[in-house]
Design goal:
- The chain contains 10 helices and 6 strands, in the order βαααααβαβαβαβαβα.
- It starts with 8 loop residues before the first strand and ends with a helix.
- Strand 2, helix 6 and strand 3 (about 130) form a beta-alpha-beta unit.
- Helices cover about 45% and strands about 10% of the residues.
- By secondary structure, it is an alpha/beta fold.
- It is globular, with a radius of gyration of 17 Å.
């Protein structure tokens, strides 16, 4: 796809930004941390934003334990709901109305995305691209995923807006060269201040006009 220079793009983290699942995942990884790594406090926060392969490599290198964690996570995700945050569809509709391409940029795998789109069939129509753990070799906070996301929607990264809720994700977005908007759904706004170009309570407070007011 040819890169467009006279438009903008929107790149969204998934959990904690578009879908209200971050707290649910925290329960899973908190329990995994308690069982396998009691020496690491706040294990769920430590791994937030990392891809599953990176988590397994760093914290569960034993093949038997790694296999057990993957099996537990699969059962967990198969039972999950994917509730959208209030205001998400309205903002995505506004982007579409203005012809601004959007992409999901997530540390989750492609199988989860299939389950998400199956449970929310209309949701996929709002996005021009999806970047999953299968597309990257480096996890957040590395900027690779957002650079790939910008490339997939054909917009220069410095004309893209990144929406993130985690520290690793904000670091990734800032390092990519995008304009970064922190979403204070998972962490308090005070914890995000200074790590993004702007911080908002949720996407319910966003519109295209408000997005374009944010400057790097």
């Amino acid at each position: 796809m040819m890169t467009t220079t006279n438009s903008y793009g929107a790149l969204f983290d998934l959990d904690g930004v578009l879908v209200d699942t971050e707290g649910t995942y925290s329960l899973f990884w908190s329990e995994a941390g308690r069982r396998y790594h009691p020496e690491i406090p706040d294990f769920d926060m430590k791994i937030k934003g990392s891809t599953l392969p990176r988590i397994l490599e760093a914290y569960f290198p034993d093949p038997d334990i790694s296999e057990a964690v993957c099996a537990e996570l699969e059962v967990f995700e198969n039972a999950m709901d994917f509730p959208l945050f209030d205001g998400v569809i309205e903002f995505l509709s506004d982007l579409k109305k203005h012809g601004i391409p959007a992409a999901i940029v997530t540390s989750s795998g492609p199988d989860k995305m299939k389950r998400l789109f199956k449970s929310n069939p209309e949701f996929a129509s709002y996005f021009d691209a999806v970047v999953t753990s299968g597309d990257v070799t480096l996890s957040k906070p590395d900027p690779q995923c957002y650079i790939i996301g910008a490339r997939k929607i054909g917009i220069d990264i410095d004309r893209c807006y990144v929406f993130e809720d985690s520290i690793n994700g904000l670091t990734s977005g800032m390092a990519s060269g995008a304009t970064v908007i922190g979403i204070a759904t998972t962490l308090a706004a005070a914890e995000l201040e200074g790590r993004a170009h702007a911080v908002v309570p949720s996407l319910a407070s966003m519109s295209v006009d408000k997005m374009l007011e944010v400057k790097r």
